[in-house]
């Protein structure tokens, strides 16, 4: 691992262990090795690095960061829509 991270900061993120059962370490390593040299699609919203590692660790590709961002965006849209409705209603 040190060969990869060098002197950069890193952390082990097991935050989804209560939601999903982690796969056996040997299965994770085997799947990761099988992907070495392969080109994988990347999409910030649907398949980013967090999706990649949760797919390996839990067998489910999820990104809590993306899900949280989507909640903030939807909240902002609702606030904006309400502000527009209030403005239109006030003019009438």
Fold and architecture overview:
- This protein has 92 residues and is an all-alpha fold.
- The protein has a single domain (2-91), classed as Alpha-Beta Complex (endopeptidase fold (from Nostoc punctiforme)), CATH 3.90.1720.10.
- Helices cover 58% and strands 0% of the residues.
- The protein is built from 4 helices and no strands.
- It has helices at 2-5, 25-35, 49-58, 64-91.
- 4% of the residues are buried.
- The model has no long low-confidence stretch (mean pLDDT 87).
- Residues 1-65 form the LRAT domain.
- InterPro entries: H-rev107_PLA/AT, LRAT_dom.
- This is HRAS-like suppressor 3.
- One of its GO terms (cellular component) is cytoplasm.
- Belongs to the H-rev107 family.
User: What is the level-2 CATH architecture name?
Assistant: Alpha-Beta Complex
* Coarse structural class: mainly alpha
Q: How many helices in DSSP terms?
A: 4
Query: What is the residue-averaged pLDDT?
Result: 87
CATH class: Alpha Beta
What's the helical proportion of residues? Answer: 55-70%
Q: Cα distance, first to last residue?
A: 64 Å
The oligomeric status of these chains comes to: single chain
- CATH superfamily, please? endopeptidase domain like (from Nostoc punctiforme)
> For the CA atoms, what is the radius of gyration?
20 Å
Which fold does the CATH topology refer to?
Answer: endopeptidase fold (from Nostoc punctiforme)
Key descriptive features of the protein:
92 residues, phospholipase A1 activity, mainly alpha, endopeptidase fold (from Nostoc punctiforme), phospholipase A2 activity, HRAS-like suppressor 3, 4 helices
